[in-house]
Amino acid sequence: MKKIITGVKSTGSTMHLGNLMGAVLPFQKAAIGNDAAIFIADLHSLTSVKNGKTLEEQTLEVAIEYLAIYGVDTPITIFRQSDIHAITKLMWILTNVTPYSLMLRAHSFKDAEAKNSDINMGVFNYPILMAADIIGYQIDAVPVGQDQRQHLEMTRDIVRNFNKIYALEWQNNIEEKDWFRNPGREFFSNELGKDFFKEPEAIIDEKVATLPGIDGRKMSKSYDNFIGIFDDEKLLKKRVMSIVTDSKGVDDIKDADTCTIVKLLEVFGKPLQIDMVKERYQTPNAGFGYGHAKLILLEALAEYLRPYRERRTNLLGNLEFVEQKLEAGAKIMNARLDATMEQITKLVGIH
Fold first, then answer.
1. Of 34, 245, 261, 307, which residue is most buried, by most CB within 10 angstroms?
2. Whether pTM exceeds 0.85
3. Domain residue spans of the chain
């Protein structure tokens, strides 16, 4: 069993179909047989969300959506990043072993710089907090997309720096054998007894689906071309009916292989729906246009998303339960980080 973790920022609109198929459901699959956790990265979100009420509401919404998708009895630990008492303390410790030159290479910083964004120190130090979010719990592996791969490599660099700098102190503490082998306490070093932190591995699923958005490009919030999982019926219909197609008419033969409607239907529709649309596309004078195909996709999405949407509605009516789930998750993860910090503070010489 491996310890795995992922995080999601609470910075805006709700989850969309691309998130669902590209990250949310793949993580649920990766969690099977492992000790898995998800943190809602409200501290990371402070880099861009500057309204307290808004951030609090968006953070709670993320928790609700994950519970709606995974189910309230999910074995995955879901917690709020800011509920972890020592996470920023660990970040500061890691900041002092992280080279400035490493931070300058971060894609998040370069992207903000290229966009002439308001670059605050939260943006600059983003990868260090991310490193703390991972190694503080002694995580074995992290599912990442290609866009996040660099941040995990930077985490590994930070781990190596820390382990190298404090190797002698750690070895001395190992020789004492008093304060880190207490019954029930996890043993964090490797077999050689030199490394304090693990170097987390990347889990990259090359088969993860990349869904097209309503304009044909990759579905993304930044392109505003997404279809939301929890859109109300009116907005869901509006987005589906806005899918961009070519100008072929109802009696023209159409190419199913290049049609965004069909690509989405192949993921969310039933075999009979998919086969029927493809057959109609290839039938001359069928009187079947893109508008008809969109309505079939709309029906398929409504059916596919119904369980998630119903569970979300129920959770919105029981916010106290959602808070209890977050508190329970934080209790588990605080205990894990506290065990690490008990050792690391002695190692670096602070209280």
1. 261
2. yes
3. 3-209+318-348, 233-313
Angle at 148 between CA 344 and CA 25, to 5 degrees: 100
The residue type of 33 is G
Q: Which of 256, 300, 245 is nearest to 281 (CA)?
A: 256
CB 86 within 8 A of CB 338: yes
Q: What share of the chain is helix, strand, coil (3-state, %, to 5)?
A: 55, 10, 35
Q: Evaluate if residue 253 carries a pLDDT over 80.
A: yes
Domain 3-209+318-348 has what CATH class? alpha beta
Dihedral angle at the C-alpha atoms of 152, 156, 162, 166, nearest 10 degrees? Answer: 150
pLDDT in tens, 157-201: 999 999 999 876 666 665 555 444 444 444 444 433 457 899 999
The CATH topology of domain 233-313 is Tyrosyl-Transfer RNA Synthetase (1.10.240)
Torsion of CA 322, 4, 93, 130, to 10 degrees: -70
